[in-house]
Amino acid sequence: MSNSSLITHLRHVDVAMPNFAEQRTFYTELWGLTETASDSGVSFLAAEGSPEQYVVRLREDTQKRTDLLAFGAATAADVDTLATRLVTQGVRLVHEPKVLDTPGGGYAVRFFDNEGRVVEVSADVTPRKHRRIEARESIPVRLSHVLMNSPTPEATVAWYIKHLGFRLSDTMCVGGRGEIMWFLRCNTFHHSFGIVRGPHAAFHHASFEMRGVDEFMRGTGRMKRQGIERLWGPGRHRAGDNSFSYFLDRAGNTVEYTTELEVIDEDTWHPHVFDLKDPANADQWGTADEMNEFIAAKSHNDIDPALFVAPPM
């Protein structure tokens, strides 16, 4: 049974780490997010151009972990429908649909995916008053997409397609070594979510959309001048046709500035397989260094210690 109409968009990604204060400073003073709410050891961070109450939640913990991935649904009835379908399909819930006490409120169900990540789907969250990002203003407009590492990527991609109705947009491969990256969509953006073949389940990267190429380059330059470790970029991918500059945050998570992510026509789109043996498939511009094992290993990240363990909030 298809759930394709129930997931509308990506809302936020929630992460935990021991060095909370350092992370909070990175995202507010350097990366360009705005803290809209906070409590002891918790910070809710919004993108100025987005109606989402927050796009990143930071939480202090003794362990570095991904707390959850949050997606939107159109109505509370859709959340209930999805919850019923998940239970029928044998998916383990973290909690039944209920009213949220996070900024903006709402109504949500939480559940574990096949590898133990926590996923939340919510509706009726009060939109945040946001604003137009001005020319040359190099701060994120919105959270664009999140990718996760998986040691069983084919099964994980199939799980998200079966249970949440995601659609496959494109796949990356490396010659005869097979497929390594899958881009999944829940609306007309080329991808809001994706899976990367990796040695273990972990956060791969979160990407933030900028106003345009000029703002993207200004943000890239600001990170460089501040001495933030740059992994890869600037360049422009083939799959999704978006620009990219990847950096490491203060907990060693990969974060990306991007812009101009492709918007696709659902009626005519057919998935492609792009081979990274052709360097133009990784970077159409040819401005980024060649992808190598060092860069890939950094984005493999640390093993997530909290699979099938729900976060405390």
Automatic annotation (TrEMBL):
InterPro entries: Glyas_Bleomycin-R_OHBP_Dase, Glyas_Fos-R_dOase_dom, VOC_core. This is VOC family protein. Transmembrane segments: none annotated. Residues 9-124, 142-260 form the VOC domain. It comes from Streptomyces hokutonensis.
